[in-house]
Write a structure and sequence with these properties.
Layout lengths: L1 E2 L3 E3 L7 H8 L14 H18 L2 E7 L5 E9 L6 E7 L8 H14 L6 E7 L3 H9 L3 E10 L2 E11 H8 L1
Parallel strand pairs: 5-6
Antiparallel strand pairs: 1-2, 2-3, 3-4, 4-5, 6-8, 7-8
């Protein structure tokens, strides 16, 4: 669906499920995402993500490295239960952190999203201590919006929200 110099952001395939389950079972990856998931929970999540994409045309897509076809993680735009804005997010296998894949894939998603006339703003939400994701947000041109106490699956956490408008995105591209 989306292509960057190093990456394919593409539709889900059945052979993504083992790598997706491994991603979601990694405590370091899931540190700021609630808790690790079982294989069955990962499969259910992948199904929900695919359903959202089919129904609404947005969602988290697998990120594949063009050079060798490796599954790196997921990235995309979806809905958050806390805000009316669409949220951009990413989740990458630990061994692929620090290579710019999150920034590269999220930038492709932002370009695609802001080409839609119905989207004027994107947000990204993470736990306050998640410095790596906050750094990606900043590299994408997102700015601090606010902090909030949020709840997911009965767990409360302190979140930081960054945002960018379509106009801010366009201004950065010139």
């Amino acid at each position: 669906m989306l292509t960057t110099p190093r990456l394919f952001l593409r539709s889900w395939r059945s052979d993504d499920l083992p790598a997706f389950a491994e991603l979601n079972a990694d405590p370091e990856v899931m540190r700021y995402l609630g808790h690790v998931l079982t294989g069955a929970q990962s499969e259910e999540l992948a199904s929900d993500i695919q359903d959202l994409f089919l129904r609404r045309g947005i969602g988290m897509l697998p990120v594949e490295r063009r050079a060798d076809g490796a599954f790196l993680g997921i990235c995309g735009v979806s809905y958050t239960p806390w805000y009316p804005d669409e949220e951009i997010g990413w989740r990458f296998c630990h061994e692929y952190w620090g290579h710019g894949y999150a920034t590269e894939s999220a930038a492709a998603w932002m370009a695609w999203t802001f080409a839609r006339p119905d989207v004027s703003r994107l947000i990204s939400v993470t736990d306050v201590p998640n410095a790596r994701s906050i750094a990606v947000m900043k590299r994408l041109g997102m700015t601090f919006d606010h902090e909030a106490e949020l709840e997911e699956d009965g767990e409360h956490f302190r979140a930081v929200v960054h945002s960018i408008t379509a106009q801010q995105w366009r201004d950065r591209q010139t």
